[in-house]
């Protein structure tokens, strides 16, 4: 077995967005500024959390209680020293000390239990909102028209679903709880320090701003290095995707470029190593300063307390000093955390804005309120008709000619019609308009006698089967790929469809049979095998109308004959519409429509069109006289 590949759809709807890794504040603010402006954004964000009001209220209360409890132990430490260890009487007061120690342990235990509860609540709410939002966005994207996906990179859509939606979970689990907790902790710590001794509070706080400024400067340096590190990681990921995919590895082996690719990866890896070392070392001096500062403040407090006691200007006790230094040590990091909160809130708003931008997209094609199902079996069942249909793609300029211009034709139930013509004439566009993947700009497309705009899309498409040149198979078993058309199909139904598509014997020859995994995009199968599995999948659907969009144009002559036999079987008893490049595959069609410049310029049987000596006759003559692939090879 061998494989093949196809180019991915190009185009772009927007650049991928998401939280900048490494905390590069400058880059993150620039990206946030580019976020779309969404009216009533805060109200819409709030509506997402509305079903979780009770849990959110409990979370807020727990944050306040936990932050307030965090400053009680130092106050109890003061009491333990002054009333338990060193009471005025001289000897330790063990009952009093035991009581205070018990209270401290109880507070520690309670704080941790509240913390676990708070974490569970925030994680549950945050991830529930994230999950619901992701499904909502995925559902909305499923309803978007085909043109949206032809002009939008797959990576952009994945970024919305993964990076942006994933990032909003931190709004609750990190940002909000961090904001509330740090604010309450800072306020409570400052109040406790002032209650213990206002002179020592001034000494401890006066140096804090300098440390915060230093932290910000060092953080910016680390952020720039982190940004370059992420860019390097992205480059390494791109190299991996390009060279280790099936298509990439085939290309590198075909041109013996493995060593060159190894060198390219190795160079980027060396760059990554240097950046990682720089990132880890860039903050070491700062953290050394922080360590020195935090270690020095208690010593300075001891010195100032001693001076105050010598001068008789304060009644500082040993318990006050110990309690004070304990509170002071808990003040710095909440202050640093508050510096990041504003940016995190802005980033979260930007993520929500980008998500709502997609949710606010209106599908260009949707069911009318009065739309109904395709009529039950009747005289017109399977009839396809175009009535003066004109169509231009959404991104076409106003002065360009339409892709289809006043096209009219009728294909009777059970008939076999083919559309041929030069490349770009509009043949494939016809196949897009029948299942209403695009909307006609003017005129009517009728299916089973009803305007497709009056039919429900799901009902319409359920009556149509499509086999295209680019066969898409999932990285799953053959059976799973076939059951995509009919999830409840029995093994007997799978085998019957495969036999009709002339692929059963091939599948049976595989060691795993229908349990054979086809590989990414079916690379473990040949082009002809993939096409016949696609035909079998359509046969399981059992549609009334079969559309073949150049289903054999990419195959060699042997595979084409096998697949063509399968297509002939599949088309029996169905209205069949073939978009053909190789005219030899449609010579037996009931009617052939020749499309040129967006118009149907000729129609008739193969013999009639040859006799007319028009566009079809010219195209047929070009293919008949064109050199075969064997003639293009040099003579031995």
UniProtKB/TrEMBL annotation:
PROSITE patterns: ABC_TM1F, ABC_TRANSPORTER_1, ABC_TRANSPORTER_2
Coiled coil: none
Main localization, broad class: membrane
Membrane topology: Multi-pass membrane protein
CC annotations in GO: plasma membrane
BP terms from Gene Ontology: oligopeptide export from mitochondrion
Keyword vocabulary terms for this entry: ATP-binding, Cell inner membrane, Cell membrane, Membrane, Nucleotide-binding, Transmembrane, Transmembrane helix, Transport
Pfam families attached to this UniProt entry: ABC_membrane, ABC_tran
Subcellular compartments: Cell inner membrane
Residues annotated as domain ABC transmembrane type-1: 58-347
One Gene Ontology molecular-function label: ATP binding
Membrane-spanning parts: 56-77, 97-120, 187-214, 285-309
Location of the region described as Disordered in the Swiss-Prot/TrEMBL record: 1-30
Entry similarity comment: Belongs to the ABC transporter superfamily. Siderophore-Fe(3+) uptake transporter (SIUT) (TC 3.A.1.21) family.
Protein name according to UniProt: ABC transporter ATP-binding protein
Native organism: Cryobacterium fucosi
């Amino acid at each position: 077995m061998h494989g093949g590949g196809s180019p991915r759809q190009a185009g772009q709807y927007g650049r991928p967005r998401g939280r900048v890794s490494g905390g590069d504040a400058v880059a993150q603010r620039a990206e946030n500024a580019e976020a779309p402006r969404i009216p009533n954004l805060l109200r819409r964000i709030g509506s997402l959390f509305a079903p979780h009001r009770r849990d959110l209220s409990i979370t807020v209360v727990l944050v306040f209680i936990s932050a307030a409890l965090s400053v009680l132990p130092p106050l109890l430490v003061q009491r333990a020293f002054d009333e338990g260890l060193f009471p005025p009487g001289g000897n330790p007061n063990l009952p009093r000390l035991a009581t205070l120690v018990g209270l401290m342990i109880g507070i520690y235990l309670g704080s941790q239990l509240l913390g676990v509860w708070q974490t569970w609540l925030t994680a549950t709410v945050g991830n529930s909102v994230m999950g619901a939002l992701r499904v909502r966005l995925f559902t909305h994207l499923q309803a978007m028209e085909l043109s949206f996906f032809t002009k939008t990179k797959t990576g952009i859509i994945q970024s919305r679903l993964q990076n942006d939606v994933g990032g909003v979970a931190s709004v609750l689990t990190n940002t909000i709880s961090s904001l509330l907790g740090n604010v309450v902790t800072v306020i409570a710590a400052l109040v406790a320090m002032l209650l213990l001794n206002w002179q020592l509070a001034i000494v401890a706080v006066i140096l804090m701003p300098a440390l915060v400024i230093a932290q910000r400067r060092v953080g910016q340096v680390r952020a720039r290095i982190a940004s370059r590190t992420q860019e390097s990681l992205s480059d390494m990921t791109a190299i991996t995707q390009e060279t280790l995919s099936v298509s990439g590895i085939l290309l590198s082996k075909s041109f013996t470029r493995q060593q060159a690719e190894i060198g390219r990866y190795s160079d980027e890896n060396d760059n990554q190593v240097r950046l990682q070392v720089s990132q880890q070392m860039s903050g070491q001096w700062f953290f050394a300063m922080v360590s020195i500062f935090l270690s020095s403040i208690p010593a300075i407090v001891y010195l100032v307390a001693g001076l105050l006691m010598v001068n008789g200007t304060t009644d500082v006790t040993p318990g006050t000093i110990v309690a004070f230094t304990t509170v002071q040590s808990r003040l710095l990091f909440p202050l640093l955390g508050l510096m990041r909160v504003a940016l995190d809130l802005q980033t979260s708003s930007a993520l929500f804005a980008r998500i709502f931008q997609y949710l606010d997209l209106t599908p260009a094609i949707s069911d009318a309120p009065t739309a109904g199902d395709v009529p039950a079996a009747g005289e017109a069942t399977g009839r396809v008709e175009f009535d003066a249909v004109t169509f231009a793609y959404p991104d076409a300029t106003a002065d360009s000619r339409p892709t289809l211009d006043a096209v009219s034709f009728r294909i009777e139930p059970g008939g076999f019609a083919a559309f041929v013509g030069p490349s770009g004439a509009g043949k494939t566009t016809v196949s897009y308009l029948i299942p209403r993947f695009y909307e006609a700009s003017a005129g009517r497309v009728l299916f089973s006698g009803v305007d497709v705009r009056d039919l429900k899309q799901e009902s319409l498409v359920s009556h149509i089967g499509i086999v295209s040149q680019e066969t898409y198979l999932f990285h799953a078993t053959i059976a799973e790929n076939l059951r995509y058309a009919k999830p409840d199909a029995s093994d007997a139904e799978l085998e019957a469809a495969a036999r009709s598509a002339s692929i059963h014997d091939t599948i049976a020859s595989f060691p795993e049979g229908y349990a054979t995994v086809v590989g990414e995009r079916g690379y473990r199968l040949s082009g002809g095998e993939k096409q016949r599995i696609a035909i079998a999948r359509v046969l399981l659907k059992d549609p009334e109308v079969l559309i073949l969009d150049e289903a054999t144009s990419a195959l060699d002559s042997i595979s084409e004959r096998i697949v063509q036999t399968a297509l002939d079987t599949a088309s029996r008893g169905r209205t069949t519409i073939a978009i053909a490049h190789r005219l030899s595959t449609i010579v037996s069609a009931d009617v052939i429509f020749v499309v040129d410049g967006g118009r149907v310029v000729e129609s008739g049987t193969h013999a009639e069109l040859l006799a007319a000596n028009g566009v079809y006759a010219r195209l047929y003559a070009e293919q008949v006289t064109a050199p075969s692939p064997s003639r293009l090879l040099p003579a031995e």
